[in-house]
Amino acid sequence: MKILRTRAASVSRQGLCTALLVAGLTTAAVGATPHRPVDGDPSPGTDNPQSRPHGNPNLSLPDLRPKPSASGKPGDRAQGGTDGSTGIPATALAAYKNAERIAAEKYPNCHIPWQLVAGIGKVESEHAALGGRLNADGLTERKILGPRLTGGQFARITDTDGGRWDDDKEYDRAVGPTQFIPSTWESFGTDGNGDGVQDPNNIFDAAAATARYLCAGGKDMTSAADLDRAVLSYNNSREYVNAVLAWMRKYQNGGGGAVPDGPGLPPSPSGSGNTPRPGPSPKPKNPATETPRKPGGNGSGNGGGNNTQTPNKPGESNKPNNPGGGGQKPGGGDKPTPPTPTPAPVTRLDRASERALEATAGEKFTAQPRVRALDSTGKPAPEGTRIRFEIIGHTDARFPDEAVQVTVRTAKDGTATAPAIDAGDWPGTFTLRATVEGRDVHVDFDATVKQAPAPRADTLERVGKDALKAAPKASFTQKIQIRALGKNKPISDTALTATVLGPDGKPLTTTGPYFKDKEGKDGKPLRTLVLPKTDKDGLVTLPELFTDERTGTFTLRLSTADGTVALPLELTVTAPAPETPKPSQTPTTTPSTPATSPTPAKPVR
């Protein structure tokens, strides 16, 4: 797949540089020792993950034409040493030379020059400038991460490191000054500065690992074929090979001298992926920032170089950067600005909170571990120093997002605080370790997760809502079932007590609804009863509840053993209403008139 250019370079200059590069490669193997494979890492092929498109390398080529000297003779090296466009930050240069030394000891038949490692560093990250300021300990101000390798214009590589190096648990991203894929780092990671840590974000480790990777398989860098195969295995693109080898030749021909470690480049405006690369070097001159040339001279006052100016605030005149150059004040001009001192390396990490951490299973640790990083002078470490917090041991405690390690940057006072930790469900102990990234400097915290107490019910509820009614000398026919809940979840093994209360709210003793004592032979009435414990669903079913001749409204009170949770249920005992007799169905008859004795006739007179 084609590697994306960050900026287009001049076609004519590209052609000239390529021609010079090819000419240089034809003599690369002169004086080469016989190629003898040595024991070591297997040779990565062009199909390995590292060789696939994983970022936006800077493929612009340096100017390989010999520069004329002050005398104008093209055969002499230009005076004045390295310029800013080809110089290498002092810490990066030290890392590249250290990688060459390590390789010479471990892979003596490889003959890898530091300039080749520097070529990789230049093309991949501008010698770590994409990470901001490069500190003397080899770490950058911020991580250098390539784009997410989700496919498309880049390779598709799903996560292989759990986000340890690239802060991404879904897809891999190239990491560090020489842009290693995490899975490649797993195989070729190297401790280049002897601090006991293999960190792809540290330029000493990254440079040493790059040399190891290029030498793998017994390759000899004095062989043009091996050199070509080595760089292709790093990124399988001919343009990439041309760019890396062109910068290697540039450095071998006098470029690449040490320059002070600078502030690096600002972060990408998008906030992710690689920071946009600068354009080809040397950069075109900007008339707005260039001192006008004096007639017959080059504007420098000393016969060599351009006198560029630093833009000042509005209302101020521009001041030349080179003391002694044209336009300086009488008497020697402005004093040169002293270089910014390189911060002392972090040598100590102190606990700034209690060492012991304690939490209950299922909850969070209330205390957040805090550390303070100090340099060799006892002062707070530079703001932004990376501190890695890591959970170590057999535990399911986790940082947010289920992470077992997180990286936090220090504040101005050198302190860094870990995020809140979820204690998990397993009781036990584990270690929380805070480490200065890139250095073997760490402190430990002792964490304890206590067994969570047995869950307790905070609510009782009845299953069913039908009214509880019964007649005297009978029983309640409704099923009475109670559920115990704790935080809205069923609570098992909860003991409940059922008590029958009278209308006055006091427990009944002699009359009223009752349970039967099943353990006794006579089944005597019980008006206070300890129920069986709730089952796995938090349920318990009450035994049959009987009534005697007493009627009225009563209360059945269910409560936990300690009495803190209770549930009252209303009981109603009432006699059934008497039946109204129905009208008689006998046929209606006309009553007979009783017979009367005949009225005796009055005698006639």
Largest sheet: 5 strands, mixed
Helical coverage, percent range: 10-25%
Q: What is the structural class?
A: alpha+beta
What's the helix count?
7
N-to-C terminal Cα separation, in Å?
163 Å
What general outline do the C-alpha atoms trace?
elongated
* E-strand count: 23
Order of helices and strands: HEHHHHHHEEEEEEEEEEEEEEEEEEEEEE
Overall mean pLDDT stands at 78
Q: Strand order across the biggest sheet?
A: 6-12-11-8-9
What portion of the residues fall into strands of 2 or more residues?
15-25%
- Unreliably modeled segments: 1-13, 18-23, 25-39, 69-84, 270-334
Based on CA atoms alone, the radius of gyration comes out at: 45 Å
What can you see in these coordinates?
By secondary structure, this protein is α+β, with helices and mostly antiparallel strands. It is 15% helix and 18% strand. It contains seven helices and 23 strands. It has helices at residues 11-26, 90-106, 114-125, 182-188, 203-215, 224-234, 238-252, and strands at 88-89, 258-259, 309-310, 319-320, 346-351, 356-360, 370-375, 386-392, 405-409, 415-417, 428-436, 442-450, 459-463, 468-470, 481-486, 489-490, 496-501, 515-516, 525-526, 528-530, 539-541, 552-560, 566-573. The strands form seven sheets. A five-stranded mixed sheet has the order 6-12-11-8-9, with no helix packed on it. It has a five-stranded mixed sheet with strand order 14-23-22-17-20, with no helix packed on it. The longest helix has 17 residues, at 90-106. Residues 1-13, 18-23, 25-39, 69-84 and 270-334 have low confidence and may be disordered.
